[in-house]
Design goal:
By secondary structure, this protein is of the alpha/beta class. The chain has a single domain, classed as 3-Layer(aba) Sandwich (Rossmann fold). It has 16 helices and 18 strands. The strands form 4 sheets. An 11-stranded mixed β-sheet has the order 3-4-8-10-9-11-12-13-14-17-18, sandwiched between helices. It has a 3-stranded mixed β-sheet with strand order 1-2-5, with no helix packed on it. Strands 6-7 form a two-stranded parallel ribbon. A hairpin with a 4-residue loop joins strand 1 and strand 2. Helix 11 crosses helix 13 and helix 13 packs across helix 16. The longest helix has 29 residues. The mean pLDDT is 95.
Length: 486
C-alpha cells in the first residue's frame, strides 16, 4: 500500500509523505468543489475528478478568516506564524498508520474551533501523526467561516428552500468524502468518530442533531462547547443579517454579492460588527437543538462530552470587571445574593477569577446535559473534566484553560515550544490519546492499563489530570447554580 507514497481515491490518485515514524500523511486534499463564484453560499458539492497524481504533501490555505491579534494569547499559543488563506479552502488532511487497504482502521475526524470565524485543520496542535500511532486514521478539516459560512438571505432561501449553515454542509460533505474513500487510507467506512472543541463542539452536536447527517458516523466527541442553553438564530434572523451586509456592500442582489472579493466581505462584516453563527436554516437544522435532544430525535450515537476546569484562566483582569460582575449578578433578581455568595468579588482581579469559575461551571453543566439526554436515548455517554495545569516559562502554572487539552489529545505538546513540559504532562498525553483511540475502536474509552472510565451516572465523571480517574463532578454548588440557570 502507498507505493511511492501514492494512494487512489474515487476522484483520482494523490501523493503523500511517509513520516519518520512510519505514518503516511496526505495534506490539503480537496473534498469539495471550491465555494467560489456561483457556488458561494451554496451547499457543498463533491469535488470533480482530477488527472494524474495530485501532490498532497503540504497543507493548502486555510479558509478566509479573521486574523488573531499579534501577540494575543491564542495567537502565541497555536498560530505563531502567518497562515495563507483563501475562499478556495475546503480541504482535509489525513494521517494513517495502515499498511494495507484491508486493515479497516477506525476513522477519527476533527472539526476545529475558533468561534466560527477563524481556525484551521492545519493548526500546529492538530498535527495528527502521534494520535494516528494509536491505530487510528486521523482526519482534520477546513470549513467555511463567518459570513461565507453562515449568512442567510431571502434570495438564497428562494434558491434552495433554506439558507445559512453552509459550513455544516461542508462538514457533512467532508465526512462523506472520507467515508467513500476510506479504503484508500486503510480505514473502516462504518466506524467513524467525529470530534470538535469549542465552536467545533457546537458543530459536532449540531451534526448529531441533524437528520442530514444520519448514518454518516457512529460515535461523537464534544469538548467545551454546548448548544442547549444558547439562543439560536431563526431563518428570519439569518436573512436579516444577510440583507444588512448586502446594503453595506452596496450590492443589488446575491448575484452581485457573489462577485465581491472575500476579503471585502470579511472587512465589511467586521466593520458592521455582524456575528455570523449557526441558526435554524430549515434544512440542516429544522428546530432548536434543545427540542431535538429533548424529544430524542438526535442521531443515536455514543458520546464523550466534557469541558475544562478553568475555561477562562487565560483572561486578564480589566478595569470595569467588578462593575460588570455586579451587573451580571443583578440579572438573577431574587438570587442575586446567592450568585454573589458563590462567585464573590471585591476587586477587578477577583471578578475576573469569579467569572472564570462561573464560565467553567456553566460550560460543564451544558456538556453534562447532553450526556444525560444521550443516555436517555439509550446510547453510551461518557463525561469528563480536563484538569491538567500547563507550565509557564517563569515556573508558574496556568489552569486548564479553554483549548489547553488539545495538545494533550493530539500528542503535540512539542508545538508549544515556550512551555517547559514535565514528565507528567507527556505521560497524561499518552493516556489521553489511548482513551480516544479505545473509544474510536469500540465505543468505550476503556482499555488495558488505563483507569476505568465509567458511563455517565449523574454523579461522577472522569477527571483528566494529576489524579486521573473517576470522581465526583467538579465545581460543587457553583455547578448546581449553573444547572438551574441554563
Amino acid at each position: 500500500m502507498f507505493e511511492r507514497g501514492i494512494t487512489t481515491l474515487k476522484q483520482g490518485r494523490i501523493l503523500g509523505e511517509r513520516l519518520e515514524d512510519g505514518i503516511m500523511a496526505f495534506k490539503g486534499i480537496p473534498y469539495a468543489k471550491p465555494p467560489i463564484g456561483a457556488l458561494r453560499w451554496k451547499l457543498a458539492e463533491a469535488p470533480l475528478p482530477w488527472e494524474g497524481v495530485l501532490d498532497c504533501r503540504d497543507y493548502r490555505p486555510s479558509f478566509t478568516q479573521v486574523t488573531l491579534q499579534e501577540g494575543s494569547f491564542y495567537q502565541k499559543e497555536f498560530y505563531p506564524f502567518n497562515r495563507p488563506m483563501s475562499e478556495d479552502g475546503l480541504s482535509l488532511n489525513v494521517w494513517t498508520p495502515a499498511k494495507a487497504e484491508e486493515e479497516k482502521l477506525p476513522i477519527y475526524i476533527w472539526i476545529h474551533g475558533g468561534g466560527f470565524v477563524e481556525g484551521s485543520g492545519a493548526a500546529l496542535q492538530f498535527i495528527g501523526n502521534r494520535l494516528a500511532q494509536k491505530g487510528l486514521v486521523v482526519v482534520t478539516i477546513n470549513y467555511r467561516l463567518g459570513a461565507l459560512g453562515f449568512m442567510g438571505h431571502p434570495e438564497l432561501t428562494a434558491e434552495a428552500g433554506a439558507s445559512g449553515n453552509y459550513a455544516f454542509s461542508d462538514m457533512i460533505q467532508a465526512i462523506r468524502f472520507v467515508k467513500e474513500n476510506a479504503k484508500g487510507f486503510g480505514g473502516d467506512p462504518e466506524n467513524i468518530t467525529i470530534d470538535g472543541q469549542s465552536a467545533g463542539s457546537m458543530a459536532v452536536l449540531s451534526l448529531v442533531a441533524s437528520a442530514k447527517a444520519k448514518g454518516l458516523f457512529q460515535k461523537a466527541m464534544a469538548q467545551s462547547g454546548g448548544v442547549l442553553g444558547r439562543e439560536v438564530k431563526t431563518l428570519k434572523d439569518l436573512e436579516a443579517q444577510g440583507i444588512e451586509l448586502q446594503k453595506a456592500l452596496g450590492a443589488k442582489s446575491i448575484a452581485e454579492m457573489r462577485l465581491i472579493p472575500d476579503q471585502e466581505i470579511l472587512a465589511v462584516s467586521k466593520k458592521l460588527g455582524l456575528v455570523f453563527r449557526p441558526g435554524i436554516d430549515g434544512l440542516l437544522l429544522d428546530r432548536p437543538h434543545f427540542e431535538i435532544y429533548e424529544a430524542g430525535l438526535q442521531n443515536p450515537v455514543d458520546l464523550i462530552v466534557g469541558s475544562n476546569a478553568a475555561e477562562g484562566a487565560m483572561a486578564q483582569a480589566q478595569a470595569g470587571d467588578l462593575e460588570a460582575h455586579q451587573k451580571a449578578a443583578k440579572a438573577y433578581g431574587a438570587e442575586e445574593a446567592e450568585f454573589l455568595r458563590l462567585f464573590p468579588a471585591k476587586s477587578d482581579e477577583e471578578a475576573c477569577r469569579a467569572g472564570d469559575l462561573f464560565r467553567s461551571a456553566k460550560t460543564f453543566a451544558g456538556m453534562e446535559q447532553i450526556a444525560a439526554l444521550q443516555k436517555k436515548l439509550g446510547k453510551k455517554a461518557f463525561l469528563y473534566c480536563f484538569e491538567q495545569e500547563s507550565p509557564n516559562e517563569d515556573g508558574s502554572v496556568i489552569g486548564a484553560f479553554h483549548s489547553s487539552e488539545l495538545v494533550f489529545q493530539f500528542g503535540t505538546l512539542y508545538t508549544s515550544t515556550f512551555r517547559p513540559w514535565r514528565e507528567e504532562d507527556h505521560a497524561l498525553s499518552g493516556k489521553h490519546m489511548a482513551y480516544i483511540a479505545a473509544f474510536c475502536k469500540s465505543g468505550s474509552p476503556n482499555a488495558e492499563g488505563l483507569p476505568l472510565w465509567e458511563e455517565y451516572d449523574g454523579e461522577h465523571c472522569m477527571r483528566i489530570g494529576p489524579k486521573l480517574g473517576m470522581s465526583e463532578k467538579p465545581f460543587g454548588e457553583a455547578l448546581s447554580f449553573a444547572k438551574s440557570h441554563p
